[in-house]
Specification:
Helix content: 25-40%
Structural class: alpha/beta
Largest sheet: 4 strands, mixed
Strand content: 25-35%
Strand order of the largest sheet: 4-3-5-6
Length: 110
Amino acid sequence: ELGFWNQAKANPDRIALICRDRSLSYRQYVRAVGGLARYLAPHGVAGERVSIMMSNSIEMAVAMLGAMAAGAQMSPINPFVVSVPALVGAPTSELIATTPGVVTAKDTRP
């Protein structure tokens, strides 16, 4: 992980992500990751598992690194394999991100 941050610091204007016809520079990627981490932190995700259900995309990459930057354990879920109803019934995650901008809090108490 430190390699990413070092690369971002040394080359902020270089392309960090490319997905289909979109790309993000390291500077843009770091800003997006930081914004998500700041959003997640007040939800108390540090040390908790955050499941992320999105198709492969720039948003998925941001969500994965953002969750880890907030101190969470990140668990990516392929939406083509696991259904949302099956996931909601499982006591595995505190928060579930299913689409960009949507975070659903789960009650995982027994």
